[in-house]
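Hi all, long-time lurker, first post. I run a small reading group and we've been trying to get comfortable going from sequence to structure in the token notation. Rather than ask abstract questions, I figured I'd post a concrete chain and ask someone more experienced to write out its structure so we can walk through it together at our next meeting. Sequence below, copied exactly:
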Amino acid sequence: MTILDRIGIPVNTSVLANKLGIIKEEKAFFERRLNAMARDGQVLINRRGAVCVADKLALVKCRVEVHKDDFGFAIPLNPADGNDFVLYARQMLGLMNGDIVTVRPAGVDRKGRREGQVLDIIERANKDVVGRLKLEHGVALLIPEDKRLGASIVLQPHSVGKAKAGQVVVASIESYPDASQAAVARVTEVLGNYADSGMEIEIAVRKHHLPHQFSSACLKQAEKISNHVKPSEYKNRVDLRKLPLITIDGETARDFDDAVYAEKIGRNYRLVVAIADVSHYVKPDDAIDVDAQERATSVYFPRRVIPMLPEKLSNGICSLNPNVERLCMVCDMEITYAGNIKSYQFYPAIMRSHARLTYTQAWDWISNDQTDDPLKKHVLNLYQLYQILLKKRLQRGAMEFDSIETQMVFNKQGKIERIIPVIRNEAHRLIEEFMLAANVCAAEFLHKHKPPALYRNHAGPTSEKLINLREQLGLLGLKLQGGDHPTPKDYASLFQQIKDRPDRQIIEVMMLRSMQQAVYEPNNLGHFGLAYPAYTHFTSPIRRYPDLTIHRAIKAVLNHSKYEPKSWNELGVWCSQVERKADNASRDVENWLKTYYMRDKIGEVFSGRVSGMANFGLFITLDDVYIDGMVHISDLGEDYFNYHPELMAIIGERSGLRFKLGDKVTVKVARADLEQSRIDLLLINTEIKPKRSKSKKNHPSKSERKKRSTHSKNKNNTRSKK
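-- Answer (accepted) --
Happy to help. Here is the structure in token form:
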């Protein structure tokens, strides 16, 4: 870097090698080191092969996010580098979704967004692509499942083998696209037919590049771990085996991260939250840790879980199964009668879970006086403490989202029989409240002792999103207090106002979208939604890698040592990114399964509510099945309908018929498109009464209506682009 600074201009790699005195035997190492510096963003090797100092070019290392309309965004990997860059078609040539690139700021567009100029592709995100095989005029093509990858990929003919058109295959890219030619790949795996049972999951894990096979080194190390706790491992641990700790989880849970116990001491309570001590078995940079960090989270699909840790640990020695010894990390708290955490301490312990309760069982013990079990009094203690903490939560102004979660019920053939709402009882909330308390103590402990660690930060609304939210709320006759800087209490107050409204779910989504996504970062910025000045994740080290790092950081403080991964910042970015990928993969699978389920419902009539809208139509959430479908704008009635985003409504020009969020409608299922995971609906009737037009003009023909509707859609598109 010193030589580059001294020269002051971009230097060819061969000239730089001579300047550094690189001999022939060292050239390969020199080139590898130079490429590593380029990946880290320290230098740029431009398209003429010249090495440039990145700082002199004001370069920003970004991840490409492709938009469906021939443009994209370059998202800075370091949040300190500012807002995203918009990349127009000329900059997108040769790029694929997820690529890591260096971008130079190139001014501001008409909408005030930063434009970027892509100077170099540092790293390709897509090495393997999943899609369907298509044969066209003797040419084998791959149609990617990820539509953001754009054009078809040409397949090498000899690699196709016995694969048939329409089958799902995985292909390895051999040459990437550029301005003049498509990408070329070879088939490496034939997954099977598109509608095969479980195929939606196979596609999702590959589409989102989720690791789903443990390395042989990881599995080998896991096999060496004992199935039971050895007496030698009791050393320097508090013995809690006689303390009646219990686990409370869902009916289908197989890995138990946490166990709880509460007792009344005078006016106050003692709360013990024991968490599986995964860090005892998984050491930094060992084979299991390498795989765990790559996965960063367990991924939950209907009927299948892709765990972060091998089953030997996740369902075995690390799981707090009943009536067996287990190692744990404990947050031992004293909580006042007013719900304040008076004191806490962390320590390693050995425990024995005295019962494995489900949420349904625990709630039955709490609400049923007839239940007679020796552990019931401890469950009632937990419930009394929960009520105190809940009251404190409301005083603090934390937000309480109560969205409807659904569960798919499958038959023996793997087909969905029905979709049912998950009924959350107070036992669910009880455990959540205790986990929050332990997480807050972990964040406070680390903040106090100041070792580096990953905090779970959640920022409030940006000024732009706040303006949009206030406009939307105003159209619904609602107002968010707090001026330019609303507090969590202001949001919580609004939640209380809307709790009995039929459109409550839709308004909650609006409010959620006004806030930024929660992320893992090494600097504490607080958690807006939970109204905590500091928050982290401590309670799920079996299924979340950030929690495992928090255990290591706390242990390091207790042992007067230090835990330091390669880069806390990069680790936070990675864990946040993988979390989003896992969520998107789960959502893809759920949407596909729901679409598949609705194929048998074509022609059936459902009631529902308007849950969203765009210039092409209405989104309807169907009652009872909790599935979203779309009514195209051309099918709304005998009128010319236009989308008015400023009014949050679609309005008929002549009739004045106005569709708003939350409106109740009756629809018929017209189509279930598996390729797009999209359900098309036809409007049957609505409770909205149209305003009759006084005009006596004849209604236009159906073809004219569609033409006008298309014109209207294009007009709205044009307006939005301006």
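A couple of things your group might point at:
Residues 216-457+529-589 form one domain.
The chain has four domains: 128-194, 216-457+529-589, 463-515, 602-721.
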